[in-house]
Write a structure and sequence with these properties.
Elements: H1 18-46, H2 50-61, E1 66-68, H3 69-76, H4 80-92, E2 96-100, E3 108-112, H5 114-136, H6 141-159
Antiparallel strand pairs: 1-3, 2-3
Helix pairs in contact: 1-5, 2-3, 2-5
Amino acid sequence: MYSERMTTPAPEPRWLSADDLEAWIALASVLIWLPTALDDQLQRDSGLTHFEYGILAALSEAEEGTLRMSELALYANGSLSRLSRGVARLESRNWVTRKPDPIDGRYTLAVLTKNGRAVVLQAAPGHVEAVNRLVFDPLTTAQARQLGAIAGRILNAIDSEPELTTQPRH
């Protein structure tokens, strides 16, 4: 019986059209080069990686400069182990501290220090200038709105793929 099983051929892949391929190559290039350019600017001007800046920025926006590590991992789009290594580097510079969550001791809180707040406030203007120069200055106002809408749709598609994630990325 097993040898008589019917096998169906795999469906033909949905190849990209020429226009879609051109758009994909452009987007893939942005995904590679933009993070590198932002990381270079932050390293040069502030001695921070883009990931470290993301941690400090998320904490600076949080109430009392404090977030659970698991919540901070979502903001920083990193695994808990990557986040833990990043926070450890920031702790060694006295920019972040960690402490048990007094409400639920199973969680660890990351807390932005006074020094950390000063660092992120010093780094923010140069970072925002780089984002403006590299992303928004080349676009019209209408294109910037479209970029936001397009990015939102792509993020929603990523979030709806259960095999890609178990938590929202934004």
